[in-house]
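JOB MANIFEST
job_type = single_chain_structure
chain_count = 1
residues = 156
[input]
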Amino acid sequence: MASIDQYKHKLLGRINCPSTYDFVYNSSTKDIGVYELLEDIPNSEDNFDGKTGDIIVGGGSGEAPALRITMPDCFDFFITDKDVDFQHHDELFKAFWTPTQSFKLCEGFKKIGWDLNSPIEFWLTENICLTLINEVDKFKKFNSGQKLPTHLKWTA
């Protein structure tokens, strides 16, 4: 059971990470769940944090390591160029992976467009936002009508 399964959430879809390495314990899957939180996560949770409406990429322990994306602030920051008030990027998005997990994920994301000169958390968060706008009806309102280019392969 993944850490996300303890909390109310909705599976929105999956992205593909074509890593050569297994990033989920005892599994060769290359797909990573993308979830919308339907409740606030308590401070006692170690695998991710978040509030209702935030996006969690990866389910934490028992699944792919997690990345939290704060909604709608990340859409405003990456897509609409609205001013977003924050002190540190962890308020917008935060990775919950170890260096080894990061290596495994980055090796896969490098194959589909991540550049070593860009922080992986920035690249992945922006591409998740673009993918959500393209693929999930609820988020299409953040788009101006055209399909936004992204490097991620999405499965609903």
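[summary]
The longest strand covers residues 9-16.
Residues 3-155 form one domain.
exit_status = 0
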